[in-house]
């Protein structure tokens, strides 16, 4: 759990909340988790229900921890399209989830449209399983679901909390789920000079090689871990890597291209997973790059525009944000994850999110400081085209996580 004093007040708020959810869903837990039983209740999406023999066979030979079914082999759930869905979306109301940070409550901050809330991700090859909060909580008695990473991962964490908060049937709240959902702030996963209170203002990042345990010791014992790390590595073309420790009297550095630095970070994470996670009992996820929409010209818009005032997704299925941005980083993930023998499920949300130029917080969020006259006269100049409104896109990321966890 997150206990260190270096934590920003923001995290403390979340920490309070974490305790709260632990209380909300805690007390005695009397329901014995049985993969087998779930198995019978939830057969695969499009498959006929498996026979008992198949179940036993799968369970002993290839069932991943937490799995209760399977997604069709041919179906890549990250390949699909956005479909307008006013009936089933959003999965919760912004005003009904008390945990959304003011940096993400777009309606409260005056966003005029709500359209961004009414989209469902439809994979080409199958349907996504319906997000079932009860199933998730029942799978985690005495267990920890831990998100580790930056503000984008925190957004996904809060989305998950809202999904659980609002989708657990009212009378089930009386039932006791001893499940812990946590977020640990480590934007680069490794130790850096940007980890602490107010340190996000540090102009030059220094990242310490080989330092993953500095944060990693707080992740030990988690049952499901969802990592992300990306945007903080992109602040400069070259990054300063500390080869010794921050307390050395003479600090030694190497300067790495950001791609090489990022590769170093991903490798450290994989190596940490190898050392600390038991693939027979736990699951590890990595959420891919979250795209920004800072230049409308990329999707055929005004030359000087960005995500501000965007209310509809990009319709061109060929649009590929990675081409405009950090394709080299995508390649590094492809290489490192395929080379590694560490079992890790990659949430490949980049492309599907890149269509969602409409889903960012824009100017409709709590700002760190009030906008100046000049900014007010030109709102796009201070629009946030990196983070996302909740409810919204990040709920889909968790639906995909849900699918990969229970129907791998
Ligand atoms: C959700 O999961 C619970 C527990 O496994 C199950 O009893 C319930 O029927 C499921 N709900 C839906 C809508 O599938
Ligand atoms: C809840 O789970 C934790 C392990 O994460 C365990 O130590 C604790 O005893 C459990 N509490 C109850 C009331 O079951
Ligand atoms: C980082 O540490 C690893 C393992 O100790 C080493 O192989 C690598 O060369 C180091 N990289 C840098 C830039 O110091
Ligand atoms: C926002 O977009 C609408 C049309 O979609 C347009 O009429 C309006 O002028 C735009 N507002 C700004 C401030 O760009
Ligand atoms: C993620 O999806 C993109 C297509 O959107 C693909 O090019 C890339 O190889 C995928 N990455 C991994 C690691 O599966």
From TrEMBL:
Pfam families: PC-Esterase, PMR5N. Residues 128-403 form the Trichome birefringence-like C-terminal domain. GO terms for cellular component: Golgi apparatus; membrane. It comes from the Eukaryota. Keywords: Membrane, Signal-anchor, Transmembrane, Transmembrane helix. Residues 73-127 form the Trichome birefringence-like N-terminal domain. It is found in: Membrane. It is a single-pass membrane protein. One of its GO terms (molecular function) is O-acetyltransferase activity. Transmembrane segments: none annotated. PANTHER family: PROTEIN TRICHOME BIREFRINGENCE-LIKE 33, PROTEIN TRICHOME BIREFRINGENCE-LIKE 9-RELATED. Belongs to the PC-esterase family. TBL subfamily. This is Uncharacterized protein. The lineage of its organism: Eukaryota, Viridiplantae, Streptophyta, Embryophyta, Tracheophyta.
């Amino acid at each position: 759990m997150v206990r260190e004093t270096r934590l920003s007040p923001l995290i403390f708020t979340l920490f309070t909340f974490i305790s709260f959810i632990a209380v909300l869903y805690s007390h005695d837990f009397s329901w014995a988790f049985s993969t087998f039983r779930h198995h019978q209740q939830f057969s695969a999406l499009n498959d006929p229900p498996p026979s008992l023999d198949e179940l036993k066979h799968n369970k002993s030979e290839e069932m991943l921890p937490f799995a209760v079914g399977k997604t069709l082999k041919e179906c890549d759930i990250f390949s699909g399209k956005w479909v307008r869905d006013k009936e089933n979306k959003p999965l919760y109301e912004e005003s009904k989830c008390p945990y959304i940070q003011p940096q993400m409550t777009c309606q409260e901050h005056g966003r005029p449209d709500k359209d961004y809330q009414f989209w469902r991700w439809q994979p080409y090859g199958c349907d996504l399983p319906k997000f079932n909060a009860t199933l998730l909580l029942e799978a985690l008695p005495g267990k920890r679901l831990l998100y580790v990473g930056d503000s984008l991962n925190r957004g996904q964490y809060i989305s998950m909390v809202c999904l659980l908060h609002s989708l657990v049937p009212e009378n089930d709240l009386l039932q006791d789920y001893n499940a812990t959902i946590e977020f640990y702030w480590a934007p680069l996963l490794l130790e850096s000079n940007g980890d602490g209170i107010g340190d996000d203002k540090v102009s030059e990042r220094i990242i310490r090689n080989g330092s993953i345990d500095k944060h990693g010791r707080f992740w030990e014992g988690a049952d499901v871990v969802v990592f992300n790390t990306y945007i903080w590595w992109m602040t400069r073309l070259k990054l300063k890597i500390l080869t010794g420790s921050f307390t050395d009297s003479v600090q030694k550095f190497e300067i790495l291209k950001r791609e090489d630095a990022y590769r170093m970070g991903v490798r450290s994470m994989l190596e940490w997973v190898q050392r600390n996670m038991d693939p027979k009992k736990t699951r590890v996820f990595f959420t891919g790059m979250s795209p920004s929409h800072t230049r409308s010209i990329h999707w055929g818009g005004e030359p000087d525009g960005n995500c501000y005032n965007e209310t509809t997704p990009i319709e061109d299925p060929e649009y590929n944000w990675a081409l405009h941005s950090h394709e080299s980083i995508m390649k590094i993930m492809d290489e490192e994850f395929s080379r590694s023998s560490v079992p890790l499920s990659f949430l490949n949300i980049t492309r599907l999110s890149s269509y969602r130029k409409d889903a960012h917080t824009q100017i409709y969020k709590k700002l760190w400081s009030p906008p100046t006259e000049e900014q007010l006269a030109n709102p796009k100049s201070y629009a946030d085209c990196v983070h996302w409104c909740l409810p919204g896109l990040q709920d889909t990321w968790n639906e995909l996580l849900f699918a990969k966890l229970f129907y791998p």
